[in-house]
């Protein structure tokens, strides 16, 4: 009797803990509270430190985009991802920062709101929503060399 009870309890705990695993991969790996703008968070054993402000931020690097696979899933800001809005994921800019993204190949620009964390691929600077990627002409290529500059919150 004791052995059967112990086995049942062990199996129950094992199944309960197994159900806690995330199924969303990269997008939900940040260990910080997704509804807060924590000063740091960890992903795959690496700690990222969020800037106190985006003021004067400017960087060049590779942009990628994410679309239907993540549509309607929660972002790090707590909002649901909408691939048809102008949003982006950035590893260290404060959430709700607005940035002007310029495709350095064709000069096309888009203003996006940072509402998520990522990309967690070492050679990427920013992940754009499908709509933002389409606006700057990079959907077909998948990635593009971009300039990212923090701006004041747009009016309207």
UniProtKB/TrEMBL annotation:
Annotated EC: 4.2.2.-
Location relative to the cell: Cell membrane
UniProt keyword Ion transport present: no
UniProt keywords, alphabetically: Cell membrane, Cell wall biogenesis/degradation, Lipoprotein, Lyase, Membrane, Palmitate
Keyword Lipoprotein: yes
Topology of this chain in the membrane: Lipid-anchor
Enzyme's top EC category: lyase
UniProt-listed InterPro entries: RlpA, RlpA-like_DPBB, RlpA-like_sf, RplA
Pfam entry (one): DPBB_1
Gene Ontology terms for molecular function: lytic endotransglycosylase activity
Gene3D superfamilies attached to this UniProt entry: RlpA-like domain (2.40.40.10)
Domain (RlpA-like protein double-psi beta-barrel) ranges: 59-147
GO CC, one annotated term: cell outer membrane
Gene Ontology biological process terms in this record: cell wall organization; peptidoglycan metabolic process
Primary localisation category: membrane
Described function: Lytic transglycosylase with a strong preference for naked glycan strands that lack stem peptides.
HAMAP family assigned: RlpA (MF_02071)
NCBIfam families: rlpA
Sequence similarity: Belongs to the RlpA family.
PANTHER family, A to Z: ENDOLYTIC PEPTIDOGLYCAN TRANSGLYCOSYLASE RLPA
Protein name stated in the entry: Endolytic peptidoglycan transglycosylase RlpA
Species of the source: Aquicella lusitana
